Amino acid sequence: MKKKSPWWLAWLWGLNLTLAGGLLAAFLFLDGLPQIPAGATITSAPGIAFTVTPVNTATPFTAPTATRKPRPTAAPPTVTPTPTRLPYGEGPITIGFSAGGRPLQIFKFGNGPKVRMIVAGIHGGYEWNTIALADEMIAYLAGQPHLIPDDVTLYILRSLNPDGEARSHDENGRVNNNGVDLNRNWPASTWVADWDRANCWNQTETTSGTHPGSEPETVALMLFLSIHKPQALISYHSAALGIFPGGTPPDPDSVRLAEQLSEVMPYPYPPLDIGCEYTGTLADWAAEHGIAAVDMELTNHVETDFDLNLRALQVLIDWEDEE
User: How buried is 276 (Cβ within 10 angstroms: 0-12 exposed, 13-18 middle, 19+ buried)?
Assistant: First the structure.
């Protein structure tokens, strides 16, 4: 007589058959589903999406993360990036750096043999409106290329003293980061270590530098002028004293340029005499190096006199050396 198996053995055998059947059914069901390629994006519900991550033995499995798509909105506004170059002309061209490490930037218009130069901001934030005027001229010329004749090159240095401009738009912004008045630092024959302040600007402490041409701003522009050799130059200042020809005594070509400017400008010429001795100026140095140069002062410390100075720009462009 055959011996009966224990009841628990029969129960275990039935359980194994049930598990095997379930696994076989699951395999047959899954094998019939379409295959989803790795990297595909699946939308499982309105506004919900996830990316299929393949399973492999090289990296641990990471469950897909659901990301809610933003609701449709109106198209974002178009943002126009600020150009690093003008649509016409060249710039900014960095010719050097200030005592505080700020770039000295020049913009160039035209490519002719007759070279003209405009310098602004030699007294930084104290005469910030000269920098604003230079920026207005740069923007204006960018859209008016026909104003520069084929035989002319015009350079505009928007600020010779960016340190002072960054520091303050008042008397504390006049000097560079070394405390030097850059319009007394030029190695002209008129340079002096100190001067009588009684009738000159004396609202804060200033120096003319440790020696002529001691400042990096002066050296950078001096080298630029020596290389590019403009025939005529306007150095903008403020305020109200008029048009000063370079040179001591005044250089004849600089006087002629000042006279031509005075014919179209309301600024005083001869300039107002307040008893100040002007020493080591850019205009003096330029005149001593064959450049017809003037210091020209705006009406006040706020206005740029832009429309008026379009006349001055035309005089500068049309200026000719005497035969």
Answer: middle
Closest listed residue to residue 97, CA positions, set 217, 206, 211, 255 = 217
SS3 236: strand
Among 173, 166, 298, 311, residue whose Cα is nearest residue 242: 298
Which of these, 271, 275, 273, lies nearest to 261 by C-alpha position? 271
Q: What is the pLDDT of residues 125-160, one digit of tens each?
A: 999 999 999 999 999 999 888 899 999 999 999 999
Distance from the first to the final alpha carbon of the chain: 143
Write down the pLDDT at residue 323. Answer: 59
Whether 162 maps to a domain, the answer reads yes
Per-residue pLDDT at 322: 76
292-298 β-sheet, strand order: 90-97, 103-110, 152-157, 114-119, 232-238, 292-298, 243-245
| Backbone phi and psi for residue 168, each to the nearest 5 degrees, phi listed first | -170, 145
Residues in the chain, how many?
A: 323
More confident residue, 165 or 64: 165
Domain that holds residue 210: 93-305
Q: What CATH number should be reported for the domain holding residue 245?
A: 3.40.630.10
State residue 90's pLDDT score: 79
Q: Is 24 inside any structural domain?
A: no
Rounded (to 5) percent helix, strand, coil in the chain: 30, 20, 50
Is residue 41 in a domain?
Answer: no
pLDDT value at 321 more than 70: yes
Read off the DSSP letter of residue 172.
Answer: G
Q: How many domains does the chain have?
A: 1
Q: Which residues contact 2 (CB under 8 A, 6 or more apart)?
A: none
- 13, containing H or E segment: helix 7-31
Q: Are 106 and 95 in contact (CB under 8 A)?
A: yes
| Res 280 pLDDT > 80 | yes
Q: Which amino acid is at 66?
A: A
Average pLDDT over the chain reads 80
Q: What is the mean pLDDT of residues 84-106?
A: 81
CA atoms within 13 A on the CB side of 97: 4
